[in-house]
From TrEMBL:
Site positions (Important for catalytic activity): 258
Family: Belongs to the transglycosylase MltG family.
Protein name, as recorded: Endolytic murein transglycosylase
Pfam family of the protein (one): YceG
Keyword Cell wall biogenesis/degradation among UniProt keywords: yes
Membrane protein topology class: Single-pass membrane protein
This protein's encoding gene: mltG
Source organism superkingdom: Bacteria
EC number: 4.2.2.29
Described purpose of this protein according to its UniProt entry: Functions as a peptidoglycan terminase that cleaves nascent peptidoglycan strands endolytically to terminate their elongation.
Gene3D superfamilies: Endolytic murein transglycosylase
Organism: Georgenia faecalis
Keyword annotations from UniProtKB, A to Z: Cell membrane, Cell wall biogenesis/degradation, Lyase, Membrane, Transmembrane, Transmembrane helix
Catalytic function, reaction form: a peptidoglycan chain = a peptidoglycan chain with N-acetyl-1,6-anhydromuramyl-[peptide] at the reducing end + a peptidoglycan chain with N-acetylglucosamine at the non-reducing end
Length: 388
């Protein structure tokens, strides 16, 4: 115990300078605590001030928020009057339609149309096209009008199976009111209408049999190019090589003109293949009435003796092989039949009843002669049917 007491007595006392440094540290620490306290008080006062301003603003603005209704998009009462033509392009959104119709004077505001568009579940089905609408319509009525096909202003052109190019030109001119000369001039520019090189510059057979819809302002070149594109698309879908397209269309056009009943497409296509390959009985001659009639400018009936004697490239009684071009626009069924005809040894066929379309096929010439006799008897009983 005395040793410990003696040891503490022996330890030196802190110097005056050390005591002064300790005092300065205590003062600095105290000043920091005071600054933090002042900062905290300032923050609290600021928050209280902001909260007070927010409460005051609420009470000032509350009457405006509760007493005034939200503004509504301007709308016409309808039903409207006059007329205006608008074009809805592919991919046009409802918002874009509203802006377009507002600019055209059909609806009062884009907002009104947008509201009506959203409210109509069928609105997403509005199709591209040209529409004739009233001016100053109620927005909901404008949406309904765009959904009604009766309001579409379109040029519709139908090309039936078997039609020749000249018939297509006349139909286009009649429907569009374009001069026939303009249509023919467009057809005379193979590059402009997208005619493939294998057509040899002649568009016969390349105007696909189908129904087309165009904008009222369409030109002849666009119409013809669309028809050619449809033919190319069909051939591509059936994997017809480019080098074989012209031959396929030519065969199919003959099938189209020779067949009465759909069930005979394949058999007529097989007759064509067999005749082209035959070197003994028909020597590669198709002997098709349809090509003979095309060559002399006739569109139907039975060839006369004069027609059969006319020496032109389409007279397949005189010339072996295929004619130089198709003889009309084949339908898809005829093209498919040519691509994959059924097996058979048929070289001859004749339609023995021009009313019912009954057609007899055979590979035997004597039997074919008997079938022709049956046709002659039918013609004697129906004398007006052989006029071409």
């Amino acid at each position: 115990m005395s040793e410990l007491f003696d040891q503490k007595l022996a330890e030196p006392s802190p110097s005056h300078s050390e005591q002064q440094r300790r005092a300065e540290r205590r003062e600095r620490a105290q000043r920091r605590r005071q600054r933090r306290k002042r900062t905290a008080i300032a923050v609290v006062l600021s928050l209280l001030l902001i909260a007070g301003l927010a409460v005051a603003a609420f009470f000032v603005l509350r009457p405006l928020l509760t007493d005034r209704p939200a503004p509504e998009a301007t709308d016409f009462p309808g039903p409207g009057s006059g007329s205006v033509e608008v074009v809805i392009e592919p991919g046009t959104s409802g918002t874009e339609m509203g802006e377009m119709l507002t600019e055209a004077g059909v609806v009062a505001s884009p907002g009104a149309f947008s509201t009506a568009f959203t409210a109509n579940p069928a609105a997403s089905g509005i199709q591209p096209g040209t529409y004739v609408l009233l001016e100053e319509m109620a927005a909901a009525d404008a949406v309904a009008a765009l959904l009604d096909p009766a309001n579409k202003s379109e040029v519709t052109i139908t090309v039936p199976e078997g039609w020749r190019a000249t018939q297509v030109y006349e139909r286009i001119a009649a429907v569009t009111q374009l001069p026939l000369a303009d249509v023919e001039a467009a057809a005379a520019d193979p590059a402009a209408i997208g005619l493939p090189a294998e057509a040899g510059g002649n568009p016969e057979g390349w105007f696909a049999a189908a129904t087309y819809s165009f904008q009222p302002s369409v030109d002849a070149t666009t119409i013809l190019r669309t028809m050619v594109e449809q033919t190319v698309s069909t051939l591509d879908a059936l994997a017809v090589p480019a080098a074989e397209r012209q031959a396929v269309l030519t065969k199919a056009s003959i099938v189209e003109h020779e067949v009465f009943l759909a069930e005979d497409y394949g058999r007529v296509a097989r007759v064509i293949e067999n005749r082209l390959a035959d070197t003994e009985q028909v020597n590669g001659r198709l002997q098709m009435d349809s090509t003979v009639l095309y060559g002399v400018g006739k569109s139907g009936g039975i060839p006369t003796r004069s027609d059969l004697d006319d020496d032109n490239p389409y007279n397949t009684y005189l010339h072996p092989g295929l004619p130089p071009t198709p003889i009309g626009a084949p339908g898809a069924a005829a093209v498919e039949a040519v691509i994959a005809p059924p097996p058979g040894d048929w070289l001859y066929f004749v339609t023995v009843d021009l009313d019912s379309g009954e057609t007899l096929f055979t590979g035997d010439y004597a039997e074919h002669q008997a079938n022709r006799a049956a046709l002659n008897r039918w013609l004697e009983e129906h004398p007006s049917s052989d006029e071409g």
